[in-house]
Amino acid sequence: MALLLLLLIPAAPVVALGLLGYGVATLGRRGRHRNVAALLGAVAAGLYTWGLLHVAGAVVEAEDGGASSSPLLPCRTPGQEERAAKVVDYSVDYVPLRFVCETTGGGSYAAESVPGYVNPAVAGLTLAAAVCAVVPALVSGRRGVKGPAV
Fold first, then answer.
1. Cα(150)–Cα(145) distance, integer angstroms
2. Are 57 and 34 in contact (CB under 8 A)?
3. Do β-strands 108-110 and 87-94 pair in parallel, antiparallel, or remain unpaired?
4. How do the domains of the chain map onto residue ranges?
5. Cβ-based burial of 22 (10 A; exposed 0-12, middle 13-18, buried ≥19)
6. Cβ contacts of residue 43 below 8 Å, gap of 6+?
7. Residue 112, Cα to own-chain centre: how many angstroms?
8. DSSP state at residue 75
9. Which of 23, 112, 124, 129 is 20 to 30 A off residue 31, Cα-Cα?
10. How do the residues of the chain divide into helix, strand and coil, expressed in percent and rounded to 5?
11. At what angle do helices 2-25 and 32-63 cross, to 10 degrees?
12. What is the pTM of this model?
């Protein structure tokens, strides 16, 4: 799990910068929908990276075995001390991005380590990027765009 975080944290900004570079470099050319899709994808990858950094911070806090480490620090929520006292382990979900506290008896709950706007924004931006990339191809195919004359 920590290995996957170590792989995703450097990869997500590279994807974001690559999409941003492509989108900005081709702004003046035809195919504006692809440019917009690349820019939306870049913002989505950047936000996902922001969420990954929050999850990585929660994992570092959870793995810190020092004093006051039980219950796990990311699982402590003010006013929910009873629930936090039952935490026995944790896991990480990557879609949607969250730090999950696992409790005795097989229960679990998501800690508040990832800002609430990250997952909805990433989902919306990813969907918008996919629509901007796919719809123009579908529309041009329906219009019966003719190829060069033979």
1. 15
2. no
3. unpaired
4. 2-142
5. middle
6. 16, 125
7. 15
8. G
9. 124
10. 60, 10, 25
11. 160
12. 0.77
Please give the structure tokens belonging to residue 54: 């929050």
Structure tokens at 66: 């020092």
> Is the Cβ–Cβ distance between 33 and 79 less than 8 Å?
no
- Residue 139 pLDDT > 70, yes or no? yes
DSSP E strands: which ranges in 1-150? Answer: 87-94, 97-103, 108-110
Q: 7-64: per-residue pLDDT in tens?
A: 666 777 777 777 777 777 766 666 677 788 888 988 998 999 999 999 988 998 888 7
| The two structure tokens encoding residue 51 | 């969420």
In angstroms, the CA 123 to CA 41 distance is 10
Give DSSP secondary structure letters for 118-134. HHHHHHHHHHHHHHHHH
Question: Cα–Cα distance between 123 and 95 in angstroms, integer?
Answer: 10
101's tokens: 């506290």
Structure tokens at 7: 């792989």
Give the type of residue at 97: L
In the block, residue with structure tokens 């170590």 = 6
